[in-house]
Specification:
heterodimer; A: 306 residues; mainly alpha; 2 domains; 78% helix; flat; disordered N terminus; B: globular
């Protein structure tokens, strides 16, 4: 993946005091040797990074385990890694108080994905519409700014009252969080379209519809896709917050239950589950992004691998 | 002979500035371009050269005066116009083939027909084998070739070019200038070629319009009676070339100085 393609570049540059030799013919043994040496250096560095990552996790989790085990830190409030793993294992093997674990994950995922799709679609559509129709954007802009400035998670409480305790209120909370992020990006993306490209397309004979589908949308796509990375996480937040406001199933409800039983390990176990879900979703979105904008030399995900 | 291909009569163009003022780019400009004629427009920085093209293409409207293309007043983008922009205006998300095929497709050709014609034009601008590349994979000169093919495939009767080669290195530039002349000679299009480079203007054009420092208006028109076909790289050594160059430069120099003084004042606040 892109992680591998960018790392070598960075580390070649970081190799320091090896100035490039003067150009020689191809197949020169000195060149071949140099290439092999560089490849080895790149590989060494990559292993070192992976190694340091593992070391970081060991130190962090190990110190947590040791300090709680020795009683320096109260595991009642802060949990203990071994107990968190045990709680997860218990959930996997014996199910949770709310039923089987996969069902809780599936419920939360369903709410998240639906909220993501609804909020994302509306965000893109409204963003493009307002980006194209300047008058509409000018008229609505103070209202949008006002709506954006309120902490929208509290709407979850409202939805729990108006839409009930089933999936609808969670989807609504998730989609309202997603909507604003995607909307602002789509809007900005449409506004940032290169004037020259629009002029060129018009000269070549594009009508308004073609202009939108062939110039505006592809151009705004990199903005929109960038926003999807953040907004899937927000959809998850929306779904979980919705569950905290009242639900009968889901990972959020699991965390809520654990919280009420003063079960810090349960809360951490729930968080771990959510993190796993988010990482999987993130890699799916990156794959989608790389597919959709293969025309771009440097893809968004090509940055420093974290 | 039919009327002029392009006619600007007493054209003034004003823009509103962000600070609420009014900036006059062109003032009372009058020029005519005959069918099939290659015209160059030179002038100092900020004299409204590009604005002239924007008016002819219908991308901008004149504040006063008349603009007509093929005898018809310009209202929207006229038929048969091609425009090669100064900066890259090829679509980065389309391959070379799709970029060149865009024009015919926008004019209602079927995809297969548009692609067949695009392939033909890609060969003619020397990009055979690069059909499936994206613009970021091409050099600046190759992207210009895509732009040329993209414009010429529509069979324009008027080709507007806004400093198209100014971003290229000198060797690539000479190469592209020669190719432009070859491509143009096989069409019957009128060309309006905007440039700040007087040598380029004389080497390419039949006629050179010299604009004054902004607000621009025509200061003089110069016939370039050098024989065709021309080789841009060599024509500069002809004595006649030097004569024409000196004649125009003696006039252009004053305008450049005026423009420079103004920029200094603007920078000094």
């Amino acid at each position: 993946m892109s992680v591998r393609s960018t790392l070598p570049l960075a580390s070649v540059g970081a190799q320091g005091p090896h100035p490039d030799p003067p150009p020689r013919g191809e197949g020169n043994p000195v060149d071949a040797d140099l290439v092999a040496r560089r490849a080895r250096a790149v590989r060494r560095r990559r292993y070192m990074v992976y190694g340091l990552r593992v070391l970081f996790a060991v130190v962090w989790i190990g110190s947590w385990q040791v300090t709680t085990q020795l009683g320096w830190v109260d595991p009642f409030f802060f949990g203990m890694p071994s107990r968190i793993v045990a709680r997860l294992w218990e959930w996997v093997t014996q199910g949770t108080a709310l039923g089987p674990l996969w069902l809780q994950v599936a419920v939360t995922m369903e709410e998240t994905v639906l909220g993501f799709i609804v909020g994302g679609t509306l965000g893109v559509a409204v963003g493009i519409l307002l980006g194209r129709i300047h008058l509409l954007a000018e008229v609505l802009s103070p209202y949008i700014k006002a709506a954006n400035s309120i902490p929208r998670v509290v709407l979850g409480a409202l939805f729990a009252i108006s839409l009930g305790l089933d999936i609808k209120s969670k989807v609504a909370t998730a989609s309202i969080l997603v909507f604003f992020v995607v909307f602002f990006n789509a809007f900005q993306g449409v506004r940032e379209v290169d004037r020259n490209l629009i002029a060129n397309a018009r000269i070549l004979g594009a009508d308004e519809r073609r202009l939108t589908t062939e110039i505006i949308i592809p151009s705004a796509l990199s903005w929109i896709l960038a926003s999807l990375h953040i907004s899937f996480g927000l959809a998850l937040v929306g779904a979980v917050v919705g569950e905290l406001f009242g639900a009968t199933a889901g990972v959020g409800e699991l965390i809520y239950n654990a919280d009420h039983l003063f079960d810090a390990d349960g809360v951490f176990a729930g968080m771990l589950l959510l993190a796993a879900v988010a990482i999987v979703a993130e890699s799916l979105i990156t794959a989608l992004e790389n597919r959709l904008i293969k025309w771009r030399p440097n893809q968004v995900s090509g940055g420093i691998p974290i | 002979m039919a009327g002029p291909a392009i006619e600007l009569r007493g054209v003034t163009k004003r823009f509103a500035t962000p600070k609420g003022g009014i900036y006059t780019a062109l003032h009372d400009l009058t020029m005519e371009v005959a069918p099939g004629e290659f015209c160059a427009v030179v002038g100092p920085t900020g004299c409204g050269k590009s604005t002239t093209l924007a008016l002819i293409s219908g991308l901008e409207r004149a504040s006063a005066g008349e603009v007509a293309v093929m005898g018809k007043p310009v209202d929207g983008i006229p038929d048969g116009i091609g425009y090669v922009f100064q900066t890259d205006a090829v679509f980065p998300w389309k391959t070379v083939l799709e970029n060149v095929a865009a024009g015919p497709r926008y004019h209602g050709a079927s995809t297969s027909n548009a692609r067949a014609r695009a392939r033909d034009w890609i060969v003619r601008v020397g990009l055979a084998g690069f059909e499936d590349r994206y613009p970021y994979q091409l050099s600046g000169g190759m992207r210009k070739r895509v732009s040329l093919a993209q414009s010429l495939i529509n069979g324009p009767r008027i080709l507007l070019m806004d400093e198209p080669f100014s971003a290229l290195d000198v060797q690539t530039r000479t190469l592209m200038e020669n190719e432009l002349l070859t491509l143009w000679s096989s069409t019957s299009a009128s060309v309006v070629f905007v440039t700040h480079d007087l040598e380029e203007a004389i080497a390419l054009a039949d006629r050179v319009f010299l604009l004054t420092a902004g607000p621009g208006t025509v200061k003089g028109t110069y016939e370039v009676d050098l024989p065709r076909p021309r080789n841009v790289a060599e024509i500069r050594f002809q004595p006649r070339f030097t004569e024409i160059y000196e004649a125009i430069w003696s006039q252009l120099r004053d305008e450049v100085l005026v423009s420079y003084e103004r920029q200094k004042h603007a920078a000094a606040g």
